[in-house]
Amino acid sequence: MVEKKVRIVGGGMTGILAAFEAHRLGFRDITLFERLEGLGGVARSKTVDGFDIRDGAYYFGDRNDPARRLLEAYGLEFVESPLRYGSVSPAADGGMVAMESFGGPVLPSDTVHLRPLGAGDSLADRIAAYPACINEAIERYCAWHVGEAASALHVSAVATMGLRRVFPAGCNIDALAALKQGDPTYDDLYGIPRELWGRTSVQTGAMPVSGYVRFFDDCRRALTSAGVRVSEGTLVSPRQALAEVPEEEVLVWAGNPTPLFKAMHLPTPRPRAKLFHTHVFHATFDGPAPFFLHNFTAQGVVFRAFLYESAGEVLLTAECVAEADDGALRQELQNLVGLFGRLSIGNQLASSVAPRWGYQPPECVNALTLLRSALNTRFGTSFVPGAWEAYAKVDKLSEISAALSRALTPAETRLTA
Q1: Residue-range domain boundaries for the chain
Q2: Average per-residue pLDDT in the chain?
């Protein structure tokens, strides 16, 4: 049997994991193409004055995290730390309620009764199951966060917006726990802060020992040592790439799938990008770092704040839905982060404005399903989609690993298995 070649387009975290996983599964002729001069994509940090500038809360899990285990098997190193997080939500009296060890919204409600989940695929279909007061609060948050109604967003936006689970403030914890344990819908839509549920152990997260700039350079060296060819600064034409997929080759498209529509003669959807403003400050904080904070009040401009250590100092990243006056931004951060510990904000190190793509309308996500089907019809297992819809690294790795395994198995073996 001819050994299959693997070509991977896109050198972000998804493409890197795909390359390591292909090698682990037994592929040996692997090439990874990245259009920029350096791996990492949106997860790659910048360095300013020797500090690792992070414009998002990227982290790996504990030792059971499959993505981390895969990278460690190839020599990448991580440092563990307690994974601490919290949220700030609107209180019934118009103020703010802070909740530690819970990353979702805490919303007052006089009932926890859920209506049946809608059959549609918009975020509105999901949140319509909540009591009216929770539904309305989430709608206000959507309008503030992305300037869209929940009906205009695909349900997958729950991850990027921090809305996976809601804690109904004032509920009977034991009763809610019983509902979660007995009904998968209640378990999916509601959450209980760890400490209120008696789960006092702190979750563990991990960051690359070298920081996210050197980490991707380390990934490149590890891939090269494993025999993977890394071609940076190489823009791959979708039309040409799809024209050159023989049966003995596997093409993994880990980059933006939008150019594939035209190459497959399909209508190209119009993905929506939301521009966010990011600011990074020197800071001192008497609480733990790293610390992740999500703001669900739909007030101000900060939707998330992230405290982390770099070069022996604490840095504070503020992710904002709009630009703000420096003084107003500092005051807002004091009000939010100050609910969890004493904070002092120093000089600003960096600022940026960049698009993010995790807020797509249902029609765009549905178009990906049609694209997958067309690619599968034409190429079968020789084309591996880059887990485009998945949000978590673990989910992306699982999906790509399964597809690579199918590509590695001869068709006649699959038919007789």
Answers
A1: 5-44+65-74+210-266+360-416, 105-189, 274-356
A2: 92
